[in-house]
Design a protein that fits this description.
Layout lengths: L17 E5 L6 H18 L3 E4 L18 H15 L3 E4 L3 H7 L5 E4 L7 H9 L3 E5 L9 H9 L6 E5 L2 E2 L5 E2 L4 H6 L4 E4 L5 E2 L8 E2 L4 H11 L3 E7 L13 E2 L3 H16 L2
Parallel strand pairs: 1-2, 1-12, 2-3, 3-4, 4-5, 5-6, 6-9, 9-12, 12-13
Antiparallel strand pairs: 7-8, 10-11
InterPro entries: Aldolase_TIM (IPR013785), DAHP1/KDSA (IPR006218), KDO8P_synthase (IPR006269)
Subcellular location: Cytoplasm
Pathway: Bacterial outer membrane biogenesis; lipopolysaccharide biosynthesis; Carbohydrate biosynthesis; 3-deoxy-D-manno-octulosonate biosynthesis; 3-deoxy-D-manno-octulosonate from D-ribulose 5-phosphate: step 2/3
Length: about 270
């Protein structure tokens, strides 16, 4: 797998899953450093390859008054500071071709949001930066269709591409993960399971997305058992007061025990 190609990524020879984790959005420097410090300590202890996640802006919002960010350059500089402070790679979402060029100057992995997984110009722009590209499977797309998204990256002279499953729309206000898609998508690229967004309950009448965080452990364990290469999860030390996606984030205090359990499951599977 291409993990060794990402600068600063540690424990790539541990035969563990890799982890993309952090807050939904960068709300400020202190909160980002606080979350990163805890996550780095845990993943170093468990020898989990770790990438700090934080969106420098949130463009996919239900309501016009929803929090979108603290300023693009300000947030990207915080991501860079996290990387330099803790010697870890970082990942952020992009929404436009201009975002790809700008964010690539600060982070190691560019993430294509699920709603934009079919946007050819965006994917090609991300690929041409030379950064690793993580494409989230659209809630409206089949696992098989992700082959074409991956091909867009590879035909742009970039072999560094991942697929992240974040569930499929089930009715108007719920998501379901079809684990049959994991082995299908692994034929095309390394596969990540987004365990927190898979538990979202979008399209609420209030315009604020809901979620089922009590099931994060269940979803993560199922993903490891199904053979995913990596896990994605959003975590915060105060989810109830997070400015974005607090309803489906993992409380940071629960991260260590969950990852210990997941490492044990992975070790069992590796020995089968």
């Amino acid at each position: 797998m291409q993990l060794s190609l990402i600068p600063q990524l540690k424990h790539t020879d541990s035969n563990n899953f890799f982890l993309l984790a952090g807050p939904c959005a960068i709300e400020g420097e202190e909160m980002a450093l606080r979350i990163a410090e805890k996550a780095v300590a845990i993943t170093d202890d468990l020898k989990i390859p770790y990438v700090f996640k934080g969106s420098f802006k949130k463009a996919n919002r239900s309501r016009i008054d929803s929090f979108t960010g603290i300023g693009d350059e300000k947030a990207l500089k915080i991501l860079k500071k996290v990387s330099e402070t803790f010697d870890v790679p970082t990942i952020t979402d992009i929404h436009t071709e201009q975002d790809a060029v700008m964010a690539a100057q600060y982070v190691d992995v560019l993430q294509i949001p699920a709603f934009l997984a079919r946007q050819t110009d965006l994917i090609v722009a991300a690929a041409k930066t030379g950064r690793t590209v993580n494409i989230k499977k659209g809630q409206f797309m089949s696992p098989e269709s992700m082959k074409h998204a991956v091909t867009k990256v590879k035909e742009s002279d970039n072999e560094k591409v991942w697929i992240t499953d974040r569930g499929t729309m089930f009715g108007y206000q719920d998501m379901v993960v079809d684990f049959r898609g994991i082995p299908t998508m692994k034929q095309y690229a390394p596969v990540v399971l987004d365990v927190t967004h898979s538990l979202q309950q979008p399209n609420q009448s209030s315009g604020v997305t809901g979620g089922r965080p009590a099931l994060i452990g269940t979803m993560a364990r199922a993903g490891i058992a199904a053979g995913v290469d990596g896990l994605f999860m959003e975590t915060h030390f105060d989810p109830a007061n997070a400015k974005s996606d607090g309803a489906n984030m993992l409380d940071l205090s629960l991260l260590e025990k969950l990852l210990q359990d997941l490492v044990a499951i992975r070790a069992t599977i590796n020995n089968l």
